Amino acid sequence: MRNTMDCVIIGCGPAGVSAALYVARANLKVTVIGGDESALMKAEKIENYYGLQESLMGKTLFEAGLRQLERLGVERIRDDVVDITWENAFTLTCAGGEEIDAASVIFCTGAKRMRASIENLQAFEGRGVSYCAICDAFFYRNKAVAVLGSGAYALHEAMALLPVAESVTLLTNGQPLAASYPETIKIIDKPIHALQGDDKLTSVCFADGDKLAAAGLFVAIGTAGASDLARKLGVEVRGSDIVTNENMETMLPGLFAAGDCTGGILQVSTAVAEGAKAGMSAVRFLRSRT
Ligand SMILES: Cc1cc2nc3c(=O)[nH]c(=O)nc-3n(C[C@H](O)[C@H](O)[C@H](O)COP(=O)(O)OP(=O)(O)OC[C@H]3O[C@@H](n4cnc5c(N)ncnc54)[C@H](O)[C@@H]3O)c2cc1C
Description:
This protein folds into 2 domains: 3-113 and 224-288, FAD/NAD(P)-binding domain, CATH 3.50.50; 129-219, 3-Layer(bba) Sandwich (FAD/NAD(P)-binding domain). The protein is 24% helix and 26% strand. The protein has 6 helices and 17 strands. The strands form 4 sheets. Strands 1, 2, 3, 4, 5, 6 and 17 form a 7-stranded mixed beta sheet that branches. The protein has a 5-stranded parallel beta sheet with strand order 7-14-8-9-10, with helices on one face. The chain has a 3-stranded antiparallel beta sheet with strand order 11-12-13, with no helix packed on it. The protein is globular. Flavin-adenine dinucleotide (FAD) binds at residues 10-16, 33-35, 37-40, 42-43, 46, 48-49, 58, 80-81, 108-110, 223-225, 259-260, 266-269, 271.
């Protein structure tokens, strides 16, 4: 049987842990899904946070957050969310295949730092370049499409396209493969130079001059960021930032976002403050339903 939670928090950096503290202490069922890919892991020294008597390595602060979750009895699933849907409640799918239902979700996925620098990528958004296979696969039925990425998230998007498209090619853009792909998906690992087309995308040009004909390119680089997941739900995104109001509520009731994924000042202090607000808003939302 599938797990059903009051609240699932995606991300276990400062925003995710802070949000979880408020939801767990309200005696609600909360799970945190997240890996170790926090921006804190790259921060050599943190000095500008309240109460620090001496500077701390970012990794030390991240690990302290995980211990705090453990002490509160909050389960952490160490996996990546690759898909999310909403139909009266949220259903999240993890890269490992686990599915979890939740009445509310808080995005705390940090800022997406992996971007592809490919000429015309943005210019073809909505005209061949898509960020959601489930949403847009139908428009590419019986057409040749490509997926940009190399890991579990790209695999998930490619598998959603496979039954609908004429062919699916994975383009790793020079990155090593980080998941195993079925033979029905062709893999090209050459660096990409540009996208070409007129009104709509027609081909992908590689750095060595080769071309691949493609009517669609589905971007699924690295881990699904909050903006990728938000697009699947039709929630407003500005650039790669999730749009929320001052209570960290998105336009979809029950969906909240906090920390670096909302843009603004990318600091531990803001992530913690927004996480607390999002946690309290989720509690308010959950209590208002009963
Ligand atoms: C080099 C560097 C130095 C910095 N120095 C400072 C400093 O001195 N002071 C300061 O205040 N701030 C500093 N920062 C910024 C600070 O680290 C961030 O603002 C803070 O970590 C943001 O917290 P967050 O919880 O929003 O996101 P993050 O800490 O980035 O956490 C994101 C979490 O989401 C998870 N995740 C992402 N996608 C998925 C998915 N699809 N499924 C499941 N989980 C997912 C990740 O694994 C991770 O657990 C620094 C950042 C960097 C990069």
